Amino acid sequence: MCELMPNRDLRQCARQSIALRLQSPAQAWPRFGRDLTLVDEDGPDGSLLFACRTDPSMSNPLGIVHGGITAALLDTCMGVTCSAQCGRAATPTVTMTVNYARPVPLDAELRVRTRTVRIGRTTGQLSAEVFPAGRPDEVLATATGVYAIRR
Fold first, then answer.
1. Are 104 and 54 in contact (CB under 8 A)?
2. Partners of 7 in beta bridges
């Protein structure tokens, strides 16, 4: 098991991980630089903050963001955090659980806070939450995930 990386160092490693992802020909949603950005903010060790804006193309029949979009957002952010924390280009998702607390609105500026729970020899355990920008106490969805670390 490794120590949680200080936030500033983790952000630098996350930028490197994001740069590698941008070189991939496979560009699934969310794309960094277009749909999702890493926020330059000091935070707890092992934690990162991301920003995303929702739009009408993400709507489900109820007029809110589709749950699959929210899940992809959470998974991407936790995956980048795990990759940065353990120094690997990719850390495939092993399992992920998403809990939807409130409807995720369309045309909204969102934040995703990730937290490294544990990095072991073969897996990383992370958590994340989505909330409206400026309102971190108004959690819209939470997730936990386990990511494979291939050494």
1. yes
2. none
| CA–CA separation, 45 and 139 (whole Å) | 21
Q: Flag whether 121 is in a domain.
A: yes
CATH number at residue 53: 3.10.129.10
For residue 1, tell me if it sits in a domain: no
- Domain presence at residue 2: no
Does the bond joining 30 to the residue before it have cis omega, within 30 degrees of 0? yes
- Residue 134 structural domain: 7-19+35-148
Q: What does DSSP say about strands 123-132 and 141-148: parallel, antiparallel, or unpaired? A: antiparallel
Q: pLDDT, tens digit, for every residue of 30-63?
A: 778 778 999 998 889 999 999 999 999 999 999 9
Question: What are the φ/ψ torsions at residue 50 (nearest 5 degrees)?
Answer: -120, 155
**Total domains, the chain:** 1
Structure token digits, residue 69: 């979009």
Walk along the chain (151 residues) in steps of 10 and give the mean pLDDT of each run. Answer: 84 87 75 86 93 93 95 96 89 97 96 96 96 96 96 71
